[in-house]
């Protein structure tokens, strides 16, 4: 079957259909896919009738097209990984003993497409950039569907390049000078508040994970294009670039702290930048593989009926190849 390619929302997001497992390791197809990914704002889906049987090896090979696959941290979550591979299972599947075999975070289901837009009252959907609290945040992810619920469980994506470009000159100039302060302690505490069995950091872990600063407007290292960046549950304050963190602001980044009011600069923009002109709702079919770029997109999970349906996703994390080499 020949491939057919279609855009998802204007020039944001693209899907290639009629893809086979063999295509995933074909260098010409890989080049075409990488090029499409770059030209469509860092959101690419592939779909095809035999992709549900994609092996872990094939998925790793495919993921390497977009970045360096991360192997770190595998042992910490061994029971939730595909054995022997850097692949995290996400969903609600269990083994015979009833133990969860995947990482599960319950979120409300979308009632209508109007719920895609961020709601400041409920603070849902939880639109975010992944892991900005890390010294070298991941550049993206590859997400593969093994089992899809009959309804719900979609993943939402928003176009942060267009969201930035569409701002007025004064706002762009203001944001260009800012940094987001992102703290793992703040992140874990926030999750612990609604999922009390989620562990908070020990004093040693807090010392080993000081807050990280990321630009609010990130220049993509390959395309050179700017995009809004730094929205994460770990974002505890927004500061002018290079400005020292005052002790009272630092308190907001620790275990007991609410996020500092400065985060409103970003948060107040969310309803607008998650409106229909910027977003894609990806409804999963088994076999689908989506690659996203954290430097140009934000995303959010949506819920499903966790008692009634099963969902199993395989997730790989992508690191910057240049950075990985520099660190070695
Ligand atoms: O489960 C999803 O749809 C998205 C989960 C997510 O945010 C992630 O894997 O980074
Ligand atoms: Fe995420």
Strand content: 15-25%
CATH superfamily: Clavaminate synthase-like
Instruction: Report the total helices.
Output: 10
Number of strands: 16
Task: Write structural notes for this entry.
- The chain is of the alpha+beta class and 328 residues long.
- The protein has one domain (4-327): Clavaminate synthase-like (Double-stranded beta-helix).
- The protein contains ten helices and 16 strands.
- The chain has helices spanning 27-39, 56-63, 160-165, 169-176, 184-194, 203-208, 247-252, 264-267, 270-273, 321-327, and strands at residues 4-9, 12-17, 43-47, 68-69, 88-91, 140-147, 155-159, 178-182, 212-215, 217-219, 226-228, 235-240, 279-282, 289-293, 297-301, 312-319.
- Strands 1, 2, 3, 4, 5, 6, 14 and 16 form an eight-stranded mixed β-sheet that branches.
- Strand 1 (4-9) and strand 2 form a beta hairpin.
- The mean pLDDT is 93.
- The protein binds 2-oxoglutaric acid and fe (ii) ion (FE2).
- Residues 128, 130, 299 line the site of fe (ii) ion (FE2).
């Amino acid at each position: 079957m020949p491939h057919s390619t279609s855009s998802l929302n204007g020039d944001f997001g693209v899907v290639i259909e009629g893809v086979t497992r063999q295509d995933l390791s074909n260098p010409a197809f890989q080049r075409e896919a990488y090029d499409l990914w770059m030209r469509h704002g860092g959101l690419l889906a592939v779909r095809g009738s035999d992709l549900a049987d994609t092996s872990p090896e094939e998925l790793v090979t495919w993921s390497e097209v977009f970045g360096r696959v991360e192997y770190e941290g595998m042992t910490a979550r061994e029971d939730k990984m595909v054995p022997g591979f850097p692949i995290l299972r996400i969903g609600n599947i269990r083994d015979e003993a009833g133990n969860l075999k995947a990482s599960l975070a319950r979120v409300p289901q979308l009632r209508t497409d109007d719920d895609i837009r961020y709601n400041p009252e409920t603070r849902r959907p939880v639109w975010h950039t992944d892991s900005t609290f890390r010294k070298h945040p991941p550049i993206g992810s590859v997400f593969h569907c093994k089992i899809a619920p009959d309804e719900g469980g979609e993943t939402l994506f928003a176009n942060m390049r267009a969201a930035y470009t569409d701002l007025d000159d004064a706002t762009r100039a203001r944001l260009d000078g800012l940094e987001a302060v992102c703290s793992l302690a703040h992140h874990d505490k926030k999750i612990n508040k609604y999922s009390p069995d989620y562990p908070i950091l020990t004093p040693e872990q807090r010392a080993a994970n000081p807050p990280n600063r990321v630009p609010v407007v990130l220049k993509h290292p390959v395309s050179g294009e700017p995009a809004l960046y730094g929205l994460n549950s770990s974002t505890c304050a927004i500061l002018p670039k290079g400005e020292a963190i005052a002790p009272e602001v630092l308190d907001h980044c620790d275990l007991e702290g609410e996020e500092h009011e400065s985060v409103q600069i970003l948060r107040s923009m969310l309803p607008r930048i998650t409106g229909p002109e910027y977003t894609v709702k990806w409804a999963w079919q088994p076999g689908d593989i989506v690659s996203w770029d954290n430097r140009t997109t934000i995303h959010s999970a949506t819920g499903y009926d966790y008692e009634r349906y099963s969902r199993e996703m395989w997730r790989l994390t992508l690191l910057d190849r240049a950075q990985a080499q520099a660190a070695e």
